[in-house]
Specification:
Elements lengths: L2 H8 L1 H8 L1 H37 L6 H38 L13 H44 L3 H29 L3 H8 L6 H5 L4 H33 L4 H6 L6 H4 L2 H33 L10
Helix pairs in contact: 1-9, 1-12, 2-3, 2-12, 3-4, 3-12, 4-5, 4-7, 4-12, 5-6, 5-7, 9-12
């Protein structure tokens, strides 16, 4: 893939919205319903416990047992939200794949709930397990390397070269941390096409991406970087506007509503100003979705050969 296809893939989400602006309307609408429902549920189920934690943190002698009890009340709500958001994300993952590979299925902004979405959900669960296992494996390997390096510089330290040994140890640790980050990025890029492969093959494929991305690592990494920069730019502009509006109206964000002592009721969560800010935040997140989800699908199409059905980008 040359630099030109990199740019093409990175901006595929923008092209999709330009060709089909109605998609954005559907996606924002669904995200608004889901986001507000999630916020109401969390405030209703855990808002009181969070307020108690915030109040307890203001006292130097907070009871650890009470803190653990409040965290225990919050944990089930977090678990429910994590599952709900995984399902929600799976729906949009499948929609992004459908928009680029089956553009004729455009009703309701390509959003569905069916077998494709279930496979994306299963893929997310598998990738989470792989990610956790990979993280621990890399961290353990890094800890072993750091331990060996520390032991190696320990002898000069004992011989009166403490300052030099400390510098060497810090530098070695820094290099190992960089190596850990590089390893995580490498595996993340090599597995980044798992979603479009799963969608196209109609079966969960976690490691099929490893073969497809062979020889395209730097190109795909370049797309990720460009997409990240686009998301950051959109987020900065969006949140500057939201914060400005919040300051003018004297409101707060969704999280600010939950963390404010006493704001533990649905009524407080749905106060007019905070509700407006919540709607703006959710709308911004929905606008970012096609920008962040479409590029990997487009890359997969470019590597394996685009479908004749994907004329929406012609």
């Amino acid at each position: 893939m040359s630099s030109e296809p990199i740019l093409d893939a990175a901006f595929s989400g923008f092209r999709l919205v330009r060709r089909r602006p109605d998609i954005l309307a559907y996606w924002i609408g669904v995200q608004l319903v889901f986001g507000l429902a999630s916020g109401i549920f969390f405030v209703w189920s855990a808002g009181g416990a969070i307020s108690q934690l915030v109040q307890a943190s203001a006292h130097a002698r907070a009871d650890p047992n009470e803190t653990l009890a409040e965290m225990g009340r919050i944990a089930p709500a977090y678990l429910v939200l994590m599952i709900a958001w995984a399902i929600n994300y799976s729906v949009f993952l499948a929609a992004a794949n459908r928009a680029l590979s089956r553009p004729q299925e455009s009703s309701f902004g390509y959003l569905r709930i069916g077998a494709d979405e279930l496979r994306q959900l299963g893929l997310l669960a598998c990738l989470a397990l792989v990610g956790v296992g990979l993280y621990f494996a890399v961290v353990i390997a890094a800890a072993v390397v750091i331990g060996l390096m520390t032991a190696m510089v320990g002898r000069p330290f004992a011989a009166g070269m403490g300052a030099t040994a400390s510098i060497v140890s810090i530098l070695a640790t820094f290099l190992v941390v960089l190596a850990v980050i590089a390893a995580m990025v490498f595996f993340w890029v090599r597995l980044s096409l798992a979603s479009p492969i799963t969608f196209a093959s109609k079966k969960i494929s976690v490691f099929g991406s490893w073969t497809v991305t062979r020889g395209h690592f730097w190109s795909i990494l370049g797309v990720h970087v460009l997409v990240l920069l686009c998301v950051i730019a959109i987020s900065i502009v969006g949140y500057v506007l939201i914060f400005a509006l919040t300051g003018l109206l004297g409101g707060g964000s969704v999280m600010g509503t939950m963390l404010k002592p006493g704001a533990n009721s649905v009524g407080a969560f749905l106060s007019p100003v905070r509700l407006l800010v919540s709607v703006l935040q959710i709308t911004l997140s929905a606008m970012i979705l096609p920008v962040s989800l479409c590029p990997m699908v487009d890359i997969y199409r470019r590597i394996t050969g685009p479908s004749d059905l994907a004329a929406v980008f012609s």
